[in-house]
Amino acid sequence: MSGSVQGSRPGGESGEPRLGLPVYGVSQRTPLAALTDGLDPSSCVVVLDGERPLGVYSPRELCRDETDPLAPETVGDLTPERPLVVGATISVESCLERAFDDDERFVAVVDDTDRLAGVVTRWQLLAAIERGESAADVVELLVDAPE
Questions:
Q1: How many CA atoms lie within 13 A of 127 on its CB side?
Q2: d(CA 102, CA 28)
Q3: Which of 56, 108, 111, 124 sits at 20 to 30 Å (Cα–Cα) from 100?
Q4: In the chain, which ranges are continuous DSSP H helix?
């Protein structure tokens, strides 16, 4: 993954994203310039250390100001803060409360070995609550719909 943008599915397999939210996994060493073209504006970029999420950004947050000589060069230069990371079995309602409390748009979901399982947005959480799924495990939002 070093230095490249890679579309990934929950669990780290490359391929088509799930639930219509394109998720790109990148290393901390990925140059911001490599992210300027080709990212879906509705996607998110997850900065990974191996398979452990370090940060979650929208493509707009990764735009580098070329006129600023002190602007960050790599994705790792942007991330002193920790992303909101939850376990797969947290309820949709609890996950949404934490997202609002932490003012996060994206929530990284990890499995029981702390590997990235996927990313959910506040909008996906709100939609699940609207459907009456507030007690469901958040990981259920990452599962492909039956074919």
A1: 8
A2: 23
A3: 111
A4: 92-101, 122-130
- DSSP conformational letter for 28: T
Q: How far apart are CA 92 and CA 107, in angstroms?
A: 11
Q: Do the beta carbons of residue 74 and residue 31 sit within 8 Å?
A: yes
Question: What are the angstrom distances between the C-alpha of 129 and each of 18, 22, 33, 110?
Answer: 19, 22, 38, 21
State the distance between the two ends of the chain, measured CA to CA, in whole angstroms: 30
Helix axes 122-130, 92-101, angle to 10 degrees: 140
Q: Does residue 122 sit in helix, strand or coil?
A: helix
